[in-house]
Amino acid sequence: MKRRVVITGLGAISCLGHGVNPLWEAAVKGESGLKEIDSFDYGDFPVRLAGEVKEFKPQDYIKNRKSIKVMSRDIQLACAASTLAFQDSKIKEEELNPERAGVCMGAGLLDNEVDEIAAGIKSSLDEQGIFQMKKFGSDGLDSLFPLWMLKYLPNMPACHISINHNLQGPSNTITTSCSSSIQAVGESFRIIERGDADVMFAGGAESRVNPLGISRYHLFNALLQGKDKTKEDYSPFDKSRSGFIVGEGSGVVILEELEHAQKRGARIYAEVRGYGSSADYNYFPNELTDSDGREIAMSTACSDADIQPDNVDMIHAHGSGIDKDDLLEARAIHEVFQAKAKEIPVVATKALMGHSGFASGAFQVILSAKMLEEQKILSTLNYTTPDSDINLNMSKELKTGVDVSTILSNAFGMSGQNASLVLTSTPGGDK
Amino acid sequence: MTRRVVVTGYGIVSPMAHNVKETWEGLIQGRSAVGPINLFDASSFPTQIAGEVRNFDFDPWRKKDPHLKYAARNTQFAVQAAHEAFTNAGLDTFDYDPKRTGIYFAAGDGGTNIASFVQALSESWGQNGQVINKSKYLEVSQPAFDYHDELEIDPCMTLAHLSRIFRVRGPVSNCLTACAASSQAIGEAFQSIRRGNVDIMITGGSHSMIHPFGLAGFNLLTALSTQNEHPEKASRPFDRNRDGFVLSEGSGVLILEELEYARKRGAHIYGEVTGYGSTADAYRLTDTHPEGRGAIKAMELALQSAGLEPKDIGYINAHGTSTVVNDLVETQSIKKVFGDQAQQIPVSSIKSMLGHLIAAAGAVELITSLLVTQNGIIPPTINYDEKDPKCDLDYVPNHSREKKVDAVLSNSFGFGGQNVSLIARKLSS
Hints:
The complex is a heterodimer of chains A (431) and B (429). By secondary structure, chain A is of the alpha/beta class. In chain A, 33% of the residues lie in helices and 19% in strands. Chain A folds into two domains: 5-110 and 153-424, 3-Layer(aba) Sandwich (Peroxisomal Thiolase, Chain A, domain 1), CATH 3.40.47; 114-150, no CATH class. Chain B has 429 residues and is an alpha/beta fold. Chain B is built from 15 helices and 14 strands. Chain B has helices spanning 20-28, 59-64, 73-88, 114-122, 134-144, 147-152, 157-165, 181-195, 212-220, 231-234, 259-264, 293-306, 324-338, 351-354, 361-375, and strands spanning 5-13, 35-36, 49-50, 101-107, 172-174, 200-208, 249-258, 271-280, 313-317, 347-348, 377-378, 401-402, 407-414, 418-425. In chain B, helix 3 packs parallel to helix 7 (157-165). The two termini of chain B are 15 Å apart. Chains A and B meet through helix 4, helix 5, helix 6, helix 7 and strand 6 of A and helix 4, helix 5, helix 6, helix 7 and strand 5 of B.
């Protein structure tokens, strides 16, 4: 008898606010949280909009204050979202066997705080102002924080979460760029399904709204550019799409084995029913040609869930807003859904909070779970002009009271990692 | 009926050699592969030694595949090791189904492009208490960095290259759980085949942290040995005078296959993966749990999933980093799990010879463990000169030993309290 896995807690920190409620309310109203960057001066740089988390105090969520110093912002956001998810699950201490509870987070390269690392470089300059490795090995090291490395190791979001919540079961960190947190949810689903844990914290966190992060995304030509651009110009699947606006934040969900959840009378948002991942052979983010990996991820997720593509009520698209990325996703949807591709509602939600990299898939899972619970289909913000090459039934306005019981949610990584999840509503758990 | 998972190929790029055969020969001869750092000027760092992969020529790959032109060092190692594994498994001449073939890898990141980074910072020093002028940095960083080099340092890139080169269309993932990463990848790959999603998995890890920021970070944590005078003596797991680990680099790759699938295509079977345990200490960020809570549980879970008793294990390939705390806690944990048996089981750490390959360590160690079962020889823990009264197991000191071994346990523990144990054994009928 297959163990079933349900979502029983949601936690999010995004530019739309602290918690899932402000995120969901803004999503329902169709209000974006993207604004001009105010955490640093971007000068004349052609990128000036982002989804920044405002008024964030890590000590509100993290009991061990000393540990905060050893956390990059990404990790702090991850800890906050995981605490919120855990609170939302209402799991009592006595209901949680620490050895049967684990964590799996999406992460990757975490950006250094530029002033912190620059201080190390600055103290390594010779009299002519030229960097000398010999000075870095001595003076440079002296000027850096002893635990500097631990602030930025990719596995640290998961490690801190395991410590904060005493999760002694499996701990994993997935680093497949923008698909990482959907994969983290998928991998956690597998872990519970096969019986290695009853409860998993799963999600991702990213904070690249900083000089290093913006610079890097811009170098990849992935960002919406132009000083005159407004947040309305971030328009996934629209004919005018031309890159993304970056967001930051963290999303974490609590996954639980169905009977474990039922026994304690948990609120069940949705069931994770299927997971698929695959690679494609694209190399440069701007030279995408191969849509087969996306197609395989979606069709595998459906077969894993034991459903036909026809049973899917709605697609929660990756929809990064990068021209070719959206085009390839559309092409793959047409391949998988054939004639139904033009009918099935497609929603892209990144224009709400910005493309948040390692966290973006987790935000999607959270919004999908809410759509299933409240029987709503969100709108795709800023979608106004159809592109005949896309040719999908983009959801243009909020639909309420609809019958939406099966959602396919996609996330595609920078260099060809593709992941899809099938989430379903669980009426009485009889599916 | 549980699907069984076997190993049909492996490949290694290590500081010892660029293939499995010569790496194994070096290990059973008890040779150290540690030497002075040549990749950059480390002469003023507290640690000036490492296990570098030397004379590694990637040009033939670049000529053959233009996509590899900018591949980062860890990706280069992975491509070579995966090629050896793939060929070794005979998959280069076999018509496998790409959709039933996946990758679960543990590649690290490629390391910051320091020259570019320093250039960008040097052109954007700030004023009035700000170290860096942020708007200036944004401007000058664009010409300072190379698009390709930046793309290639992402930890997802190794996976991207491997997927393309080996025509993989099944499930793909990359995990990065510090020093436990490639053991975890192997464990998860094993689970994927067991579950039935795939028939073949390419798994393992690759890493190179021998760059200025990697060395700086570990030195700041005081995790590394500073025995610079005698590099070959620096890594001394379980020895009383151990003072930290030696950073090294490389890649280990295994081909896992479902047993019947492998038999049907007539593949040579090197052994079977039968147990996997993954736990977290959930204790403190910088300290291992003093009683080895997570390590004990990982070993117990691995035994349990393999359906084995402690007495069935003929050899333990230790994590054995040569840090004071790891080796002590690992010893205590082994004693806790194996009880009276603990003294009878040979335990060795090949990190004494190779150094610590970080994310790639577990894969090279599992391959070595499989070689132990095939050859009936256990590689030693070298540099074991003085007994630590608190570490009192049989560490196979200094010389390899002949012993028939059926089942092996391989441990990998990582920063932040990540623990993974794997069990592999000879194929039983």
